[in-house]
Design a protein that fits this description.
Strand order of the largest sheet: 1-2-3-5-7-10
Shape: globular
Structural class: alpha/beta
Number of helices: 11
CATH architecture of the largest domain: Alpha-Beta Complex
Number of strands: 10
CATH class of the largest domain: Alpha Beta
CATH superfamily of the largest domain: 2-enoyl-CoA Hydratase, Chain A, domain 1
Distance between the termini: 30 Å
CATH topology of the largest domain: 2-enoyl-CoA Hydratase, Chain A, domain 1
Bound molecules: acetoacetyl-coenzyme A
Helix content: 40-55%
Amino acid sequence: MAAVEFEKENGILWAKLNRPEALNAINEDVVEGLEKLVEKVRNERDIRVVIIIGEGKAFCAGADIKMFLRSSTFEAREIIERLGKALEAFEDIDVPIIAAVNGFALGGGCEMAMACDLIVASENAFFGQPEINIGIIPGAGGTQRLARLVGWKKAMELCLTGNRISAQEAERLGLVNRVVKQEELKEEVLKLAKTIAEKSPTAVGLVKQAVNRGFKMSLRDGVAYERDLFALSFASEDAKEGMSAFVEKRIPEFRKKR
Ligand code: CAA
């Protein structure tokens, strides 16, 4: 069994973290699986949306602490760097990634979810950066993405205390897009993925670029960047199809592949 399993159906790629016995803790095999996920999306142009979910009672309980105990500083740095690069690639690829958080999303698990474009959590999910409890600090973007998502002070509190927050609190803080019933998680995430997969793949990719890259710019630079991407979207075949379909009062037929 692979540590990350893939299943593709109608343009939606499910990536399942599959180490339930260790609450899907991130070891080298999981990192390799995440790298494979990025490569798959880059190569398989029919993938329109990715959903990451965890097998068992956790989404992911963070880096594998048992692996860390056996690692030299150099080895730990290397695995964290590979994880960090895979998560950066999540932001760069032109396909939205949805984290379907079915339980604990702690440490590296919270970091993984935050690097996804959307987070749907089941009502029993918990989020947190508990690294401080074991004498280390987050290493895959926890102190950085969390501060940008929930604000400076709240991120500081979560990273300093290691406290866990509920899915409901995470939603209130803007960390999570929506909270759904545990038994409806897959169905709700799939519904969201299908809604996005029906749009123009060009426009979807450009929205992702505009939001993710623009977020790192000043407002003025971001808006100028958006104008250029708007022009790119305007030049696509899908733009002609979308606007014609509106005028002709019919459903647009967008390209199926990116
Ligand atoms: N690494 C390795 N194994 C882990 C693990 C982890 N992060 N989290 C859980 N496990 C293992 C446990 O050791 C246990 O295995 P055994 O049965 O062999 O003992 C199994 O998964 C089940 O876990 P628990 O019995 O602890 O389950 P629980 O329901 O009582 O508690 C939990 C769940 C609160 C999530 C608890 O497991 C926990 O606190 N886990 C560690 C969370 C953590 O500290 N994460 C941060 C890791 S460091 C990091 O992520 C750095 C980074 O920035 C990348």
